[in-house]
Amino acid sequence: MVRAFFLSLVWGVSFLSSLSAAVFPYKANPSDIRVVPVDPTPESETVKLDILFPERSEVKQRDPVRLQLRIAGYPLATNSDFPRKEEIRNDPKGQTIHVTVDDMHYFSIDRAMIQTVDSREHNYFTQLTEVSIPFDLKPGEHVIRAFAVRSYNESLKGTGAFALERFYFQTKVDNLSQNLNDPFLTYNAPAGKYPFKEGKPILLDFYVANTQLSDDGYKVELTIDGTVKRLLTRWVPYYIYGLKAGDHTIRLRLLDPKNRTVKGIFNIHQDTITVQ
Fold this sequence. Notes:
Layout: H1 2-23, E1 34-37, E2 48-53, E3 59-60, E4 66-72, H2 84-87, E5 96-101, E6 107-109, E7 114-117, E8 125-132, E9 140-149, E10 162-169, E11 184-189, E12 193-194, E13 202-209, E14 219-224, E15 228-232, E16 238-241, E17 246-255, E18 268-275
């Protein structure tokens, strides 16, 4: 009887602990968190990414909308052979293209349907990929943003490695609330699930278009769990140290020189990650 009571007590404590973790997720302590800028991984100037379809301002009539891209000088599905792959989470799928439609979460492309190799430079690949946008579209304006990504999720920062195209679905109406000539932000990482390992950082990464970051100019505000805030004034990858096991909310906001949010739906992005 005593043993049964003890087991019941242990089960009850375990259940309450699990319930508490679900209802009251772990919040990052500002004193535990370090956000450290790191140098971008070296990249070739020959990388070139193009969106072939949909064509600019094309009006598509039916879901699913097919997307075709061409990337040159950057082989997909291979491991990025740099020391950083040992420092942070490395995806066994290898190098990919991340595609964002409007302000939705990105999806990845890691396979090519056609691949050619330049006979003069055996490492110069040209690859053609084709996928369907994995969700239904609302009528009106849509914007595709695509960029090349290392196997450890760091985006390439060269202008050739980023592609953008506007198209329409069913009706040609500009209703997206984003001027593509103004500064805008594209969120990349962190995303998804991360194994918890004491002292191992998590990558923070994003793409900035039509501006540069600086102390007295445009900058990116990072907020973690609503409690930790940092101003990022360099467009480089960052390592986040100190996130404990649990769910964490990561928010990025593009600010103008007066620290006001830059207009446009791309310029505030929030994601939830899990450290386990």
